[in-house]
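Title: Request for sanity check on 3-dehydroquinate synthase prediction

Description:
We are preparing a figure and want to confirm that the structure record we downloaded matches what your pipeline produces today. Could someone re-run it with the sequence below and paste the raw structure tokens into this thread? We only need the token string, no images.
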Amino acid sequence: MQTIQAVSYPVHFQEESYKALSNLIEENNYSTIFILVDENTLEHCYPKFIPNLSTDKKIELIEIESGEINKNLETCIGVWNAITELGGDRKSLLITLGGGVITDLGGFVASCFKRGIDFVNIPTTLLSMVDASVGGKTGVDLGVLKNQIGLFANPEMVIVDNAYLETVAPREIKSGTAEIIKYGVTYDINLFNEIKDNKDLNISDLIFRSVEIKNEVVLQDPREKNLRKILNFGHTLGHAIESFYLESEDKENLTHGEAIAIGMVCECYMSAKLLGFPEEKVTDVKDVVVSIYDKTTLLKEDFSSILDLLKHDKKNVNGQVNFVLLNDFEDFKIDCKVPEALIIESMEFYNQ
């Protein structure tokens, strides 16, 4: 599969990508190679990865606890301390081996340690393959507020190897599918239609096209001043819902994709009411989402808490929440202002 060239780094695919990693290590003469994992990737992915790492450099393994709840500065401090105690210096390399939490947090850790060391992303979940590992965003959450602390920093390379998906639970595959749906409705409707038809899905092709789309968008707008905002479709309300369930002691956490799927249904409804997005296409998106994800009922008594969390969205300006909405499939409008009553109405529509 052909390599995709991002702004300053390549995205390699499948087994051939490990040769490129070996060349990178040899050419840069790194002092130490740190590999960041969680308990799941240590058990299931590290044994698949390590035979492919051809080097005589010193290798150190650093493990953190899995889950969005651990994507915070406290975990970063633990990783920074570990790198320091293990003799890390400016010529060290950090390899992130894991899902979105690992790649987001690991990239942030690497970019800040001694004002920046090289890092390589090896995503192991569908979500991280099609979204989190590509595009140069790194960061951590502030409490339950998603990705409030971070910076733009590019890896030396990204390695996408579908073999790691064999280690992932079906729920996590579904979580990543939400990002592919997002690319479909905003940028390339063929992706959405493939998932809608659900006939012999070629996951390799879906991943490649998703990475290709994200790279095309990021190359045009690396700092999210304009076009890149389309990658936030479904995420404005979706992140608020995800954060609400994360902080609620009496509710099971939603995966990122489950929350974003709800957000996309709601934001399609808002699009219909404000921009004339065809109602039959709202139904199409809702039907696909409901067919993939277990239904989550958003309780009316929780609406106000979700709306409060919207006030902390990263795209807000002067306290005003900004949505990405659709005129039609592949035809979007950024920085849309949505009345609170319509946001509530959209959640009620999702519940129906």
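Thanks, this matches our download. The mean pLDDT is 94.
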